[in-house]
Records
---
Amino acid sequence: MNAGEVLGRCIGEATTERVQFVSKKMPRIGEFVILECDFGAVLGMIETLARGSVAIPEDIFDPASVEKIRAMEGDEYYIQGSVRILGEVESMKIPRTPPPPGTRVMCAPPVVLMRIFGDPGNGIRLGTLVTQPEVPVYVHTNRMVTRHLAVLAMTGAGKSNTVAVIADGILGMRGTVLIFDMHSEYISASFTSGRVTPMRTVLNPKHLSQTELAKLANIHGERAYVQSRYFRMAYTTAIRDLQENTIGISEFFMHMKDLLDGYLEEERFRDDKTAINAVRNKIEEFEERYEQIIDLTGREFSESLVPGTVNVIDLGAVDEDAADVIVSHALRKILTGRKQYIRKREGIPFPLLIVLEEAHILSPKTRSTDSKYWISRVAREGRKFGVGLCLVSQSPKSLDPDSLSQMNNMIISRLIQPEDQRHVQSASESLSEDLLAQLASLNIGEAIAIGPMTKIPALVKIDEFRGRLVGGDIDVVGEWRRAVEGREQERDARRREIGQMEDY
Amino acid sequence: MLDIVYERGVGSRERISGLVRVLEKSCPDASELWRSDDIPRWEHEIRIAAVDGSYNRLDFRNFVLFAIDAESVMYEGDGIRNRQEAVVDLLRPYRYAKNRLQLYMTLLEMRLAYLTLEVERPDRLLFDGSLYGHAIRPMPFEREISEETRSRVMEDYLPELQAAIESNRAMITSFLFFDGMQKDFRDEFAEAASYLEYLERLLVLSMLLNRYRNSLIGISKTAQRTDFFNAEVPDMAIFERSTKGAGWSIPVRLPLQREAKRGFPILDDFYRGLDFMTCYARLEDGANMLRLEFPYAIDEREIVRNLSLLRETSAGGYPYLLRRAHRDVVIGHQDMERLAHLFGLFGRTGREML
């Protein structure tokens, strides 16, 4: 459709939020239109479209009949649709009166859309409008970070690309991002506007709280309160001794085990020998299991963050419990660090956007995790301290609704499951029923962007990330072929070798 | 429904089922009158039109608001063109509303058919229903109109009516004379007006038949006539029951002389000289039976030719142009309410308490 072209006319009863129209031309879902009202021009977005022919109703049961009717009537059809009113063009305020019946519906000229979406000032370029590719879409960075963001889509619909585009945009503004990389996708990524700071996925028990450490050691207070008591006793003494330099950090776990051995000898703990032994065994198991991520000399996490880069914590190799501890610990430290900086000029001196991949695992709907608590805290308090959250999930229905509802901005790509769609809708005020219905029909790379980061909802074709990401789907067939070829080459080489030996 | 209705139904089950069986058994065999040959394809240029009309009314306590419309649809290979006409008015007088509104609709259909035949020159024009019925159907108030009233209408209004029809002054010309007639006939206005409308029907139909009878085909989806078998059940039901697949019946002549034995108040010779013929046909396997009516003598060869054209322009075994016209013209109750609101008619109809 060309800008300014009359698409059709409003019909039926209109409200200040929605109007129906009828057309002979075929617009597209998500297309922006201008309603030429008597009180001024109003911007709207086409949310539903239906195409039909009065000559070919649904009660025809023979295709031959349809053929004959088409031969006589030609390709006669009508278009009916609904437009969601977004605001008056000049002020972007919702009009006080509905458009009059018969109002002309016209294609929105790019100059109007450029004014709304195309202003790069303080914005990150997300992509272009699906329906008007000449119009770039910039989202307001401050509003995106402070009001948080959810990137939701089914697998393969472009979540990682969207995150990479946003991270690259933030790098372009010399901003800081922290990504909890659940699938080791970003750790080796290269961005066009800055670099990645790989952060070691290590935990120093010195920096962990007793609860965090107990959880990693599989000692859950609510289920094993006796074990929990002895663990706490040993931990508290070991930490005190560490602080008093009675022991070195490298002796920390050994010291805890010695303390537990001491308890076994004591008469007063005679009845709890089994529990004490269990705690000792669990500490040994913990050391064995987390050998790779326990670093008794590691720096405090927040000290390792590098401003102006994409800091990536690779969680690809750790289990869900460890990921929960690492994430919750990091969130706690970051929030505290930012609070300290704002109040005392100590702590973390720069705002940052924290990207949590597989957010439904870290903040699940049905169980309680430490991360869930801290995600909720950061979502509530982060705005004032410059800590933004970006929850990424392919399963919104499994994501904690409280956490999701605090993500005021959303970039939603293809979501097929109705339960996912409903869950997202209940978490977002700006996602209308009609917009929701579009989620299943979005193509890969297309998304609905809503929230304060964009002046009005937009159907966006997300830019293709121009850097490099590791990950995506594996070329299974190619891998098979290479594996067999490799074996054959090996076998040929061995035969040649044997042949040479026989010749010799 | 009251429970007693169902109880009565249960009580009569045996008797009614038995009656149905008897009626079905007594159904004559129609196979000898039926041709199951293939309807040949139409190989020529197509120029065909169809006309249909509709009416609806909203009864208020002291008047009736009515709306009538009609549409002609013309197809000649490069798409469909249509013409539409409508009348919206209050019915004067109130009595015999249904018959009179049907007559108005027929007038509108016939005027539009005439106009379409004049301008578009289709080879065939399909009429929904029976032209024969329009010719022989008695007028409303038949028995209530005195000889004196009839004579006065014929003398004082017929010449003017004729002239007005010929000069095409209105789609329903009788309306033009109602103000004068009201003064002239006072208490007998209803009867006089109805008589004038009847005369108009005969005049307009004669215009149509006189000039274009060979182009007209009346088509009915339902028909109660018993011209073929003179049985208790309609011919259509008998053909429907005893034949399968596409085909057609041989034609029969309609007994106009017998049915119009009382004669026509005007154009008696013309009407008595008409030949109407009818046959039944199923255009496609599995489709419904149609009654076809031709206002002229027609042989079987010509019937097959007409069927070819009809089949070529039918969808689901029914002429598409008629379906299209019917779809367009339907005036629903909501349409009537919208019209009433347009006139500010929010008066009580007397049915609000139901």
---
Amino acid sequence: MKKHQDQGGLKPEYASILDGFYRGLAPSGLSPDYRAETEVYRRRSRLASAGRLYESLMSASGVAAGPRVGYFCNLVPEELIRACGAVPVRLCELDHACARLGEEVLPGDACPMIKSICGSAAAGRYRDLDLLVIPAACDGKAKLSELLAPVRPVYLLDLPRSSEYLRNADAWTGRYQDFFDFLKERFRSRAGRSELTAECRRANLRTQLFRRLYHFRAGHPGLINHFDYFTLVSLSFRLEPEAWLDLAGEILAEAVGRAEGLKFDGRRILLAGSPIIFPAYKVLDILYEFNCEAVADSLCSGYGHLYDPVEIDEETETGIIRALALKYLAASLCPCFMGLNKLLDLLVDTTAEYRLDGVIYHDLRLCQVFDMQTVAIRQVLKEKRIPFLSIKTDLGREDTGQLKTRIEAFLEMLG
Amino acid sequence: MAIAGLDIGSVATKCVVVDDGRIIGAALVRTGTDTEKAATRALADALQQARLERAVLEKIVSTGYGRRQCGLADRVITEISAAGAGAFRMNGRRPGLVVDIGGQDTKVIEINGEGSVSDFLMNDKCAAGTGRFLELMAQVLETDMEGFSQLARSAEAPRRLNATCSVFAESEVVSLIAHGESKTNIAAGLFEAVASRVAAMLRQFQEQPVFFCGGGARSPALRLALERLAGRPVQVLDPPQFVVAFGAAMLPDGV
């Protein structure tokens, strides 16, 4: 089992030197306070049940007890972690203050999310977790597996970066199986087929409700607005599936009850590109100001996190793990994986299905692989006569004026 | 009745008074730090030239980066829609691509046969490739924009510059001068650097006629560099700095 721990580790001597450096960066810690933002978005919501939604951001209820496994990226199967009796917490974050602290460890032009994570780690925000799981989905995350090693034990989930699943399904299944074996030993679990089946069922219930909510939003824009939606998905990063179902079910039920006769005179767009996670809602704020709703998306912090079910063909442990590999990897829209065909199909098909007004591509500056796709997407969508706007931004607010000009002009162009 | 179009840019505020589709008054002032003051002055100057009182104006439409910081306007539109509308009406109502090089933005706007914007591209946050970049480089070469353009036109072999950032470009220029490179070749190289960025933006669109406006279009050297690098004629709209303000005044209601 030692080989796994070595995968993302640092020698104790080096780890301790780096740990000392981190502790000196933020000796009094760093605990971002989002009460003001929470209040703003709660007031913008048109639903009474959103009160509980935004309160949940500030509270620890709905989170299970047990050893906590922090993970990054939506390529880590929560089902495997839960089956072993541990509690998965997705730690992907976009916090400006943490990212600034992260710049004391990483270069300023590193990816904003990696900087934010590194800042949080240096500030001691991960010290109460039992394990960190980092998929080598991109170079930044792979490097994090070494830089976070001084903070907590790290498991590096190394995955081949091609989404041609016929060729890679065996390799992915093997990596997930290794990870599952590691978790079982680490948390002294004897989990197998029946625990895995149960966890897949829980996750699929969440997916079912999510799909209903997703389709509802496209047909009834603005009722569950894009802030409510992305907040709901952000909450699924840490809530138990049942707690999430309870919250999302209440929101959807209220919205369905009020949907009749609802009019929306704004624009409906699909948001593609880099993730949007509470409280980094700058682009959503601007869209809202111009009465434009992001009613569909292709983000790993939205559609990509909850839309795909686990589809089990063969009810053996290996069969289930293989089904998980297909759910997480074959369906991934991450530009680090070769999934541009899937992304383009999704943009073209969804825009037609929901008769959307266009696509806005959110490019968090410096995550270069997102930007590397921009020209290809722009050219294909132009040929298909789908209005397209690409915006480059970061976590700061100083470019709000420039972003407004681009978005407002795009909306004027739509007529 | 006359309409005023106010284009409040990052460097200059432009105002035109339009009557029956014709510009009867135009004024340009530095924007400075007080947007409201610059807008008021530009409007007063343009009205004076048009020999009109403000009270007779049917409406005032503002555009540009300061479009919302001006209390004078009855209507606000973005400079992208305004540039498209202005260019279409100044180029004989032809579809094509409008290149607008302003103080802090460089845009390529595609206009269709009806004169509506059908697509656009803008440079990102960075100032390289904008009018402000060229102004800074003129300072480094110890000349003004006109002298800068003249320098470039007598170049023998434009000097290729490597830096893409304004700050680094400045030190690169200084070091080239120190190493004996002629100012003419450096000037030509700087215009080529800006033009090549714009040419790359143009290549994102299907080939069609190119119209040039904004402060940058006042520089013949930049137009020539752009023609060379884009491989097609570039028509400067006249007067280039007032295209956007004119478009704002000419846009029918409801964009």
---
Amino acid sequence: MVRSLLIRGMLVGLGAGLLAFAFAYVFGEPQVQHAIDFEDHLAALHHDAMGPEVVSRGVQRTFGLLTGTVATGVALGGLFGLVYAYAYGRVGALGARGTSALLAAGAFVSITLLPFTKYPANPPTVGNPDTIDKRTVLFFAMIAVTILALVAAGRVRRSLLPSLGGWNAASAAGSVLIAVVAVAELILPGVHETPAGFPADVLYRFRIASLGINATLWLTLGLGFGAVAQRLLEPAPHRTGAPAASPA
Amino acid sequence: MSDVALERKAGAAPAPIASPRELLPYALFGGLVLMIIIYFVGAEEGALSVISGTDVHEFVHDARHLLGFPCH
């Protein structure tokens, strides 16, 4: 069963990666190009020599982008399938599709949305190459904090549920999540490397596009994997050939 | 299988499908392989570099930026 879920996760992830590519190509690429044009403009102003083009822009925005989004989709889909294999039956009274939707929503919030409030996606030109080591460590540290905070909030909710009831337990869990993430964001150092004069509209649209790409990925995984997992784990009577006479 | 699904009472959790023990080898090996893929898209030839040069970085350049990974 774990094997089946892993394979299905990778396949749904493949589809999610393709949709993410389409979204990225339409909404993200124009902003990437604007940012690169700005970079070239700056280089021309300072009479900097342009570096040799290792991979052409045409390849970067098509096959390169496709490879990156699809590989990420397959990898995240596989991991999603494995986490799902553990989570199914262990996250309360949720069926196959509910579990998938909950996991994907949690992944989007903890891997994309919350880390984004501290270290948002940046287009080319925004970001100093000399600080890439520090920024990479901070980025993954932030994701680790938000995932742990979300898991902790889930446990708080479950432990308070019998005594406080649904609304209060969820409010307490949400407060724990926000408090932990807020403290982490206050402690972790900020990164402010946008060069002077960089067009604010381009930065804004790039970041919105990045959120949209990640939302596409997780939405497709959450709903697509849920549908696939339901067929596997909870086959409907008419599909298995059993008489559909039993009253629901 | 269908009986299990039908007999499940509303508000009750379905039975887990895998014990942690059963999941461990998948989690270790599958998780490692999938992490390596994400590493190559997200961070190779950035903070760390396994393959020399910048070919991998440049090829997945746009995806790296747009997915939200830190990049040059």
